[in-house]
Amino acid sequence: MSQPNILLIMADQFRYDWMSCAGADFVDTVSLDRIAARGIRFARAACNSPVCGPSRCSLAAGVYPHRTGTLENFVNYPLEQPTYYQALRQAGYRVALVGKSDLHKGDHFYGMNGDLPVMHHLGFTNPHETEGKMNAAFRRNRLMSFDIDPDDDSHIAGPYQRYLRDRGLLTAFTEDYRRRFADWKFWNAWPSPLPAEHFHDSYIGRTACEFLERVSVETPWHLFVSFVGPHDPWDAPAGYVDAFADTSFPASIKDDLGSKPAWVRQKAQKHSDGMSDSDLNKVKRHYAAAIKLIDDWIGQILDTLQRRGMSDHTVVIFCADHGEMMGDHGLFQKSTMYEGALRIPLIIADPREAWTGTSDALAELMDLHPTILELAGVDSSQCRLDGRSLVPQLKRGAGPHKDYQFSELNNTRMIFDGRYKLIENHNDINELYDLQEDPHELTNLVDHRPEQVRRLMGEMQLLRK
Q1: Terminal CA-to-CA distance of the chain, rounded, Å?
Q2: 3 state SS of 256
Q3: N or C: less crowded end of the chain, CB within 10 Å?
Q4: CATH superfamily, domain at 5-408
């Protein structure tokens, strides 16, 4: 079999700098370090939209979000738009998914077995799609409704709810979410009522291992393992949280927000009003705990590959759909163009390539679309893609990748040239940061560097054509 297997592992809302292989000494991501030791870590990778749905749609299509029309959450992927999953299937790949896809998020129904027909249309041969983290306790087809009757299958939104129902755990889970949302604070954090073995990401990790244990070696496969953490709510299992009781975490970026746009100031007020340093530290404990649980399951996935003798013929990729602000500038979650939300972890380990290390290439998440196709031997040169293959970057002495990174939402967009970042905010002030001199994005230079603003604004217009 000449075509390699391709394992894509994605985490949801995972900061680029919360990995020990990226220098974090407060969380030991031994499994991610295993992947990094065998491949290339792209230290400056960025998402093309700092929100789950648009980011994942951009990856599937290989184009910027405005070309798919998905610039906000709860907008379904356009069914007429080709996906790289379809191209792999046509090339003879078994294309599997375990976890969250967000390709038809507006439906809020994933099938009792996670294998709705729409997933087959999008290119998957073996889908096992689960609910996302934030909406895991919502009733089928009803956002913000926790009124699930465990005995009524028409209330069940997806396979993880059914899994909990069958073990008598669904009511405790939904009631805990009801409590969290009733008095929602972005910094509320307390452990899940679920044992670690039944936590959502444990379910996803275990199901991924089960697929790898039984997958046929007659054809190449692409497995997309899509964890729902470390996304909020902050509810990691108690045992994992307790392991970080004495950990010192890095301070969040403090900002008086004086030069930030009004919508950012309003968001920060909403996110962190009333929060103490102790509250913020508790959130970080839960975030680290969620990462550690995911890392443990990644280790089991890698062990399963090794046990089945597939490690030397499987490309392993780890990434996230976007980052997490984690208190920087008084913000949580994503939906801004600041570094915490924009940057993502990205590691590619191809066992056929001898070179390992770190790359400063301006990689983008959607670049994985042509990258995966090239790894599979599928020609995408005739497709109109905005993504550019990272395969050349896996070789020693690779040249430049891209001149710019671009990311967008329905109210803001960003372009970055490796030093200067321009953020255009619709109906608000724009922002320009020199990340070489100001990596924390505290000094808005938009009124002081007009030549950079004009240059980057012009390039941004070209990217949107």
Answers
A1: 41
A2: coil
A3: C
A4: Alkaline Phosphatase, subunit A (3.40.720.10)
HSE of 258, CA atoms in CB hemisphere, 13 A? 4
> What one-letter code names the amino acid at 142?
R
Nearest to 414 by CA among 367, 446, 370: 446
Give the model confidence (pLDDT) of 280-294 as tens digits: 999 999 999 999 999
Domain 411-465: assigned CATH number: 3.30.1120.10
- Across 182-213, b (16+ Cβ under 10 Å) vs e yields eeeebbbbbbbbbebebbbbbbbbebbbebbe
Torsion of CA 388, 1, 123, 45, to 10 degrees: -30
Domain ranges in the chain are 5-408, 411-465
**Where do the H-state alpha helices sit in 43-149?**
52-61, 65-68, 84-90, 117-121
Question: Token pair of 463, please?
Answer: 């990217």
Report percent pLDDT > 90 for the chain. Answer: 95
Q: Strand order in 412-416's β-sheet?
A: 405-408, 412-416, 420-425, 431-434
